[in-house]
Amino acid sequence: MAFEALLRRDRAIIVGGLIIISALAWCYVMTGAGTGMSMRAMTRIAISPGAFSADASMPQQWTGFYWAIMVAMWWVMMIAMMAPSAAPMILLYARVTRYEQKSGRLAEGVVPTAAFAAGYLIAWLAFSVLATVLQFSLERAGLVHSMLMWSLNSWLSAGMLFAAGLYQITPYKQTCLRHCRSPAHFLSSHWRPGHLGAIRMGSEHGAYCVGCCWALMSLLFVGGIMNLLWIAGLAVLVLVEKVAPRGELVARAAGLTCIAAALSIAGRAVGIA
Questions:
Q1: What is the rounded distance in angstroms from the CA atom of residue 113 to the CA atom of residue 95?
Q2: 64, 162, 202, 263: least surrounded by Cβ within 10 Å?
Q3: Mean pLDDT of the residues in the chain
Q4: Going by C-beta distance under 8 Å and a sequence separation of 6 or more, which residues neighbour residue 148?
Q5: Whole-angstrom Cα distance, residue 42 to residue 72?
Q6: Span of 4-18, 170-184, 247-261 with lowest mean pLDDT
Q7: How far apart (Å, rounded) are the C-alpha atoms in residues 32 and 28?
């Protein structure tokens, strides 16, 4: 009974912590994530250059402080989007660790759930740095709006949609998705004890998660990095892929939809040309 009570307390603390972290991340994103963007600017609908493409601003000055803001923006956004889909893995890790302690196979003590979560977030921090570098490069090339942060080029939009759609139906995507959808299998095959082991396991799981979702995250360049409609839509899609029955079919369907959208945008671009 005491062990069950302990499990319930651990679960409540972890769930509460994840809810608070996710809520704070969403609040930060919805208030502009340090970019100064208004709610109107963050809820415009755009898939390819259109009515607002002429509203191009002067190139942003990328100071060291601005680089930090952009990395933080990407990272907090990833936390907001990924925390719900990572929750099953984090909860199972805590439960298995506590069970192993009760069984005497691990020394009793604080379950290093925070270390596991930190390792997971480190993987997404690495992704956020790379995404910021890509954002800088595309902005300097005049392909992404410096303030609205969406694609200004139809071919860039079509190319990113096509690449994301193609990746969605590759074996690489399915392999990473299977790891994300099977927490028990991941823990049994990657188990390492202790706090350092927890960090390493979390980072390995985070790497699979990045491998599963990086192509979908790249679509933020198409619809707007800070576009709340795209952020929420992609977050829901990622969650459905990872936790819903037959989520792998949802991933493939999303891939085919992206490819169709890419062809449609490319077709319009050819017609305009």
A1: 10
A2: 64
A3: 86
A4: 37, 41, 44, 46, 52, 55, 57, 224, 226
A5: 17
A6: 4-18
A7: 7
